[in-house]
Design goal:
With 467 residues, this protein is α/β, with parallel strands linked by helices. The chain folds into three domains: 255 residues, HUPs (Rossmann fold), CATH 3.40.50; 100 residues, Anticodon-binding domain of a subclass of class I aminoacyl-tRNA synthetases (Four Helix Bundle (Hemerythrin (Met), subunit A)), CATH 1.20.120; 50 residues, no CATH class. The protein is 45% helix and 15% strand. Strands 4-3-9-10 form a four-stranded parallel sheet, sandwiched between helices. Strands 5-6-7-8 form a four-stranded antiparallel sheet. β5 and β6 form a beta hairpin. The mean pLDDT is 92.
Length: 467
């Protein structure tokens, strides 16, 4: 059984998709006014873990991630640089796709951009006007939250306790300011606009996701993800306008990721603790280690990013990679130990059970490292044979289809230049020219290639350069 914590109900619920063995998933993507910071990346990796696990369990997942390329922030950024909106956002859209590739985040099926879906938004806005859920004021269109009795279910606010306020024009605001929000914003000087049936102007942020999710996933779909900061007002408003227009439930399961802090403090550029992926790569941070760190804390817990924790993540990955290296290169004797089969089966069950319980990554990783610990003991005792080594390796690589923290095989190949260098060093050793062999070993190490001399010949592996 798989179960998730549903923000809407505030409790753990068994996961039952609308269509058996199929999942329709919508995740809030980037607002492309800046480079993604590690807090954004944490959310994207949580969503990737969720999708990979569902695929691992045999579900067909249709994944949509939007790109917000028109809103208050993108317009402000474009105006500050005195360039057109499309030119401004392109740089950050390209950067987003570079980031997810470097962090081995699997691609969504669709990446709809808000500016490509204005007619879809206008259609919903017109319908809300016709049904009496929306009204026009000074050229803009607002959603009347008093007309939607269930407003506040997701964010747990009670409209009766709020003092009357003016309409909300901005895209983002606090719960205390909850009131009628903008579906369509009137044309303004210095802002891009579209000529539409509801007048000249541009969409509000919230209507964008309602239009794009329903277009690609239908009027009701399975899972909607995002950060806890999206719960209000963004997701609350999505529910209101979508259910008011379609007359049916919008989303069955809402999953939200907690914030990330740095060295125990809120991330801030002014504090100097604000990091993008580019910042960390410039510090020679291994993308695999960063991914491991960002997924290794349960998504509903606060994650404290520190460079010490990053070193810990690197050490954990080294433990896995060293074990795989041993399995690949140790000359195991022919045979099979049934205890290994039982160990692999037990590990797989615990791994699946852990992630099936609201993505409990701690249980899943504990199962993996316990298998490695027990297998290493058996290897040292000479109780692991060739078929056992193959089973252990297959198990880890299979589980990594979910985790995606291990280098792919193609990344472990060497160019002919390096292979020739290794062969030349072997010849130097055969000729007992140990000084030259040692010098060549050091040269290869500087290139990130570690050599290990064994009775069965030289072994090599690629490591991250420390330069």
């Amino acid at each position: 059984m798989i179960r998730f914590f549903n923000t809407l109900s505030g409790k753990l619920e068994p996961f039952n998709p609308i269509v058996k063995r199929e999942v329709k998933l919508y995740t809030c993507g980037p607002t492309v006014y800046d480079f993604a910071h590690i807090g954004n990346l944490r959310a994207y990796i949580f969503e990737d873990l969720l999708k990979r696990f569902l695929v691992f369990r045999g579900f067909k997942v249709t994944h949509v991630m939007n790109i917000t390329d028109v809103d208050d922030k993108t317009i402000k950024g474009a105006n500050a640089e005195k360039v057109k909106l499309q030119e401004f956002t392109k740089k950050y859209i390209d950067a987003f796709f570079e980031d997810i590739q470097k962090l081995y985040i699997s691609k969504a099926d669709y990446y709809p951009r808000a500016t490509d879906h204005i007619p879809d938004m206008v259609k919903i806005i017109k319908g809300l006007l016709e049904k009496g859920y929306a009204y026009k004021k000074d050229g803009s269109v607002y959603f009347n939250i008093s007309k939607f009795p269930n407003y506040g279910r997701l964010s747990k606010i009670d409209l009766k306790e709020l003092r009357p306020r003016k309409r909300i024009e901005s895209d983002e605001y606090e719960k205390e300011s909850a009131n009628d929000f903008a579906l369509w914003k009137d044309k303004k000087e210095g802002e891009p606009f579209w000529e539409t049936e509801v007048g000249p102007g541009r969409p509000g942020w919230h209507i964008e996701c309602s239009a794009m999710s329903s277009k690609y996933l239908g009027q009701t779909f399975d899972i909607h993800c995002g950060g806890v900061d999206n719960i209000f007002p963004h997701h609350e408003n999505e529910i209101a306008q979508s259910e008011a227009f379609f007359g049916k439930k919008f989303v069955n399961y809402w999953l939200h990721c907690r914030h990330l802090i740095v060295d125990g403090e809120k991330m801030s550029k002014s504090k100097g603790n604000f990091y993008t992926l580019r910042d960390l790569l410039a510090k020679n941070v291994d993308p695999y280690a960063l991914r491991f760190l960002l997924l290794s804390t349960h998504y509903r817990k606060m994650l404290n990013f520190t460079f010490e924790a990053l070193e810990g993540a690197s050490s954990s990955l080294k433990r896995i990679n060293d074990f795989l290296y041993e399995l690949k290169n140790r000359p195991f004797e022919e045979g099979e130990n049934k205890d290994i089969s039982r160990l692999v089966e037990d590990t797989n069950k615990k791994f699946i059970a852990g992630l099936g319980d609201d993505l409990n990554i701690s249980v899943a990783l504990r199962a993996l490292f316990e298998m490695i610990r027990k297998a290493n003991i058996l290897i040292s005792q000479g109780k692991v044979y060739r078929k056992d080594g193959e089973k252990l390796m297959s198990s880890i690589l299979s589980l990594d289809n979910v985790l995606a923290v291990l280098p792919r095989e193609e990344e472990e190949t060497l160019s002919s230049k390096f292979m020739k260098k290794i062969e030349e060093r072997e010849k130097a050793r055969t000729d007992k020219n140990y000084e030259l062999a040692d010098q060549m070993r050091k040269e290869l190490l500087k290139q990130g290639i570690v050599l290990e001399d064994t009775k069965d010949g030289v072994r090599w592996k690629v490591v991250k350069s420390k330069e």
